[in-house]
Amino acid sequence: MKYYIENSDVKYGVDEFGRNISFMNKISGHEYVSTPSHVWKIILAEGQRSEQPVFAEDQTSKIETDGNTLTIEYNSLIAAGKKLDISLKLTFTLEGSMISVTSFIENKSGLTVTELNITAASGIHSLDGNPSSDRIMWPSNYGKIIESPALSDLSVYSGFRKYERHDFLHTDLDLLYPGGSGSMPWFDLYGGSEGLYVASHGLSHETVCLHVERDIKTSLLSLGVIRYPFTSRGESWMGEPIVYCPHAGDWREGSRIYRRFTDSSEYFKAPELPEWVRNTEGWLRVILKPHHCEINWDYKKIPELYDGAAAAGLDTIYLLGWEKGGFARMWPDFVADDNTKDGLGTEKELREGIEYVHSKGGKVIMFLSYFLIDHKSDFYLKEGGGECTIKSIWDEEVPFAETYCGEGTYRKLPNPPMPMYGACPGSEKWHGKMISIAQYCLDLGCDGVLYDLGGLKPYLCFSDKHDHKKPNLACAGKADRFGDLRRVVKSYGDDKIILMEHIVDCFNQHMDIVHGSRMYPDSKSNVPDMYRYTFPELVMTNRELGEDEDKMYDNINFTFIYGLTFDMTIYRCCGSMADVPGYAAYMKKIIDLRKKYAKYLHYGKFIGDDGFTVDKGSVRAKAFRADDGSVGVALWNRRHETVEAVIRSEAGTDYNVELEADGAGFVEISNS
Question: What is the greatest pairwise CA distance in the chain?
Fold first, then answer.
């Protein structure tokens, strides 16, 4: 038997075994399914059998269609030949070009339903018959392009050794959200002149996993999302929508679909930014007292550091290792030093340094950690901090261990990294600590606080001391808590700001500046376009492209065309602008160009490759749309000689521009 739902845009079908037999884009005329394939898999836990699989093909189902709705219902499930009192219902709803899949589980067995893997688009070799031209735009950090996924060993992206997973059966792309590398809960398979958008359209912020599976024997793809219900005996659970939408064009149409969802559902609301943030050019990031406690600069050196940054066109200094214990030690005991003999100085001297920066029209940002707890901190030893830590499935705290060394080796090489431990965002006590340390910094007079590790991996937390009811809900309240922290910061004045490390859309909406992942100007696969195109109003840094003068022209020009602010981390935050005079001089030139075209680069929105073409392959270019609708294009000449390029607008008008060797430029165009 075959069952279908169909309209003028899409035809979708399953067989009596609940396998996907058709996913046809009726507009392009392409059938995506090559071979019938599974649409779901469940994982159960019982005692030592912690990953007992339940496969759709082994079940007996009741399938019905009613207009634009198809349901697959299982009154019980079979695993390893044993009948289990677990019911499952999947509902497929077709509206326009979009198929939405919701799920319902009722568990009357003694097992726990830990995972539900929905891959409603399955058995795909290619969208248009040419798998070598297919790509996946994957929301890993800013965005990653996966080439020819049906022809590729996807395990190379997993970060695991092959024998850690069932890579002899299938290789997978997996990405947790919200956090870690997972910046958004959608991806897009595209090729030729069409694409297939896949996303979680939930509002709960529960931990999910984007999933692409490639069968080793058939090279067929299954696309979907994994959820973690942790449904025990006597419990029921309803899964939020997982959606599929074929479309014309490339991944950018997928981006537009997702942004329409976030706007209409109010899942993402763009932050209102202070004027100085819109106009910021970036910061000098420095560690005053590093991990090995050999001080780089004391508080009295803050004016000197800022003056060097300001001379190069920067307007902010970002202080790390300002705390008494030094960088990555004793966290979250963030308090100023009180040692004038061999320490950083006094709180009074820190305040004076901040006041000096203000007297010159500059800003000061102070570092805080949103995630880490040192077992030797007062918070852990005296304030009950132990109840805030994440408890893993092994009933252990989650370690995060690093050792930053200086000239020595004995601390780092023959010793393990210095451990700290992860705090759960579902802990009310931890949230209270995040509020109090922000208030401490703001009382010192700083202009903003940056929560480092703010969007780390959304670990499942099994502690019974936190607010979340289930392990998968540990991050469910995190976005709201960032919103609460924003309100605390803004209570000190609308021009005070909150910042975070990591790119995660539901968290970033509460941030004035987003300090993302490291950039790779030479990479063809790691590209900022996906996130910048989806959320162009966010102010973002060029993370770690200012470490030294190596490839400085590429790093600065890349920053320019993507409309990013400068994150100067000279010598890994242990150097000043005086150490990179060549970088400083060219950066100042580009900053002046940014200011000249501020209506686009500071006040406009990134539109990437929309609205123009460029005739030179050696010229990289990205467009911005100003509030008045006008379009400007930022250009980067990658050749070591002068180049003349022609920019053609959508309206067909040509604009000639000459770019100096290794230089940048900007041209305003008309599309009317």
Answer: 83
Tell me how far the alpha carbon of residue 547 is from its chain's centroid. Answer: 22
One-letter amino acid for residue 123 of the chain: G
Q: What per-residue confidence (pLDDT) applies to 120? A: 98
pLDDT above 90: residue 410: no
Start-end ranges of CATH 3.20.20.80 in the chain? 275-515
Report residue 51 CA to chain centroid gap: 28
Lowest-pLDDT choice from 151-155, 499-503, 555-559: 151-155
- State percent of the chain over pLDDT 90: 90
Specify the DSSP element, H or E, that contains 104.
strand 98-107
pLDDT confidence band for 162 (50 / 70 / 90): confident
Give me the pLDDT at residue 155, please. 87
d(Cα 341, Cα 621) in Å, to the nearest integer?
53
Note the pLDDT tens digit of each residue in 250-260: 999 999 999 99
Measured between alpha carbons, how far is residue 71 from residues 61, 67, 90, 91, 224 in Å? 10, 11, 6, 5, 18
CA distance 10 to 95: 9
Cβ 286 vs Cβ 304: under 8 Å: no
Question: What tokens does 468 get?
Answer: 């979340």
Q: How many CB atoms lie within 10 A of CB 469?
A: 11
CATH superfamily, region 2-265: Golgi alpha-mannosidase II; domain 4 (2.70.98.30)
CATH number listed for the domain at residues 275-515: 3.20.20.80
- Tell me which residue of 195, 228, 118, 172 sits closest to 475, measured CA to CA: 228
Q: Looking at 25-34, 42-51, 302-311, 560-569, which range is the least confident one?
A: 42-51
Structure tokens at 671: 């599309």
Q: How many CA atoms are closer than 13 Å to the CA of 492, on its beta-carbon side?
A: 21
Q: How far is CA 110 from CA 46, 232, 234, 548, in A?
A: 8, 7, 9, 59
Instruction: Count the Cβ atoms, other than its own, within 10 Å of residue 442.
Output: 19
- Which residues, 6 or more positions from 382, have their beta carbon under 8 angstroms from its beta carbon? none
- Cut 0.85: pTM above it: yes
What does the pLDDT read at residue 223?
98
Planar angle of CA 28, 30, 36, nearest 5 degrees: 150
Structure tokens at 665: 């430029």
**CATH architecture for the domain at 606-669:** Sandwich (2.60)
Closest CA to 365 of 506, 489, 453: 489
pLDDT at 178: 98
Contact (Cβ atoms closer than 8 angstroms) between residue 186 and residue 245: no
Indicate the length of the chain as a whole number: 672
In the chain, which residues fall in CATH 2.70.98.30? 2-265
Give the pLDDT of residue 517.
85
* Cα–Cα dist 21/35, whole Å: 7
Share the mean pLDDT of the chain: 96
- Report the phi/psi class of residue 412: left, alpha or beta, with left for phi > 0 and alpha for psi in -120 to 50: alpha
Q: Stretch 213-241: mean pLDDT, rounded?
A: 97
Q: Which residue has the higher pLDDT, 410 or 332?
A: 332
Cα–Cα distances (Å) from 496 to 354, 449, 606, in that order, read 14, 9, 25
Using alpha carbons, select from 406, 405, 402 the residue that is nearest to residue 416: 402
Instruction: Specify whether the CB–CB gap between 604 and 666 falls below 8 A.
Output: no
- What's the CA gap between 169 and 217, in Å, rounded? 8
In the sheet that 619-625 helps form, which strands lie side by side, from edge to edge? 605-608, 619-625, 631-637, 664-669
